[in-house]
Amino acid sequence: MMLFSIFSYAEALKVALVLDKGGKDDKSFNAAAYAGATRAEKDLKIDLKYVEATDTNAVENLHRSFARKNFDLIIGIGFAQKEAVRKVAAQFPKMKFALIDGEVTAPNVRSLLFEEHEGSFLVGALAAMKSKNNTVGFVGGMDIPLIRRFAMGYAAGAKHVNPNIKVIENYVGVTGEAWNNPAKAKELALSQFSQKADVIFVAAGASGTGVFDAAEEKKIYAIGVDSNQNWIKPGVILTSMLKSVDVAVYDTIKETQAGKFSGGISRFGLKNNGVDYTLDKYNEKLITPEMKKKVDDLKKQIVDGKITVPDYYKKK
C-alpha cells in the first residue's frame, strides 16, 4: 500500500500558458491554444495555469515569473512574444519554452510554426468559386508579415481558380489593438462589400466578429480563421482556414510529460494536417460537391508538390 501511495502522488507537470490580449474567449487563435491546453489538463492530469497578457509590455515579466516558479513548460501564444521568450529562455536555460508563430533559436525553446499560406490558398479557391461578383476581400488584423502571408496565399488561391478575380485587401491597424477592434473590422468589411466583394476572408483575431456581423447584415459570406468558426454564424461563414494550434499545444505538452521535449522548429502544413479548410454541419450546404472536389484536388496537388503556393516570407 505504501508504494502505491508514493507513486500516486507524483508531482503533476506544471504548464503555463501566456495568451495575448485577445484572450481565451477570442473564438480564434487564443481560444484554440486554450482548448489544447485544457484538453491536456483533462487527459494528462497536468497542473495548468494561464494568463491573458492585456499589455504587451508585461509579457516578458509574465514568462519570467512562471520560470521563477519552476514551471516545467511555458507556452507563449503569438509572434509578439518572440523577444520575451528569447530573453527569458536565455536567463532560465533549464526551463522549457514553446512559442506559437514565432521562431527562437535556443535548445530549450520549441518554435511551433504553421504554413498559413497553404490553408489560405484553399479558402481563396473556395471564395472565388462562391463569388458571383468576381470580387472577394481580405481583412487582416495587424499589418505584419504573418498576416500578409495569409493574404498572399488567399489571393493566389482565388486567382488560381479565376485569374480575372479582383481581391480587395485591408488591415485593421499597425499595433496590437488591431486584434481586438471588431468595429473597425466591420467598417472595412462594409467598405469592401460596397466595392462588390461578396466573400471576405478575415485573419484578425477577435476583430473578426465585426466582419461576420457585416456579412450577416449584407447577406454575403465571410471566411473564418485559426479555429473552426463556422458555428458562430451558420449560413454566413463559408468555411474557416484552420490552424491546428490546439493540436500543437497538446502534443507539445504530451511530449514534455513523456520526457521527449526538444528544442527547434516544428512545422504544421497541409502534409501533416496542420492547416486545412473546414467542412461540417454548419456550412455543408454552402459548399457544393463540385467545390469540394475541386478544393480537395488543389490540396492534393499542393501536398504532392505540383502547386507551389507563394509565400510572403520568401518574397523577393
UniProtKB/TrEMBL annotation:
Domain ABC transporter substrate-binding protein PnrA-like residue range list: 15-311
Localisation per UniProt entry: Cell membrane
Lineage top rank: taxon: Bacteria
Pfam families per the UniProt record, alphabetical: Bmp (PF02608)
Family annotation (InterPro entries): BMP_lipoprotein, Peripla_BP_I, PnrA-like
PANTHER family: ABC TRANSPORTER GUANOSINE-BINDING PROTEIN NUPN, TRANSCRIPTIONAL ACTIVATOR PROTEIN MED
Name of the protein: ABC transporter substrate-binding protein
The organism's taxonomic lineage, starting at the top: Bacteria, Pseudomonadati, Bdellovibrionota, Bdellovibrionia, Bdellovibrionales
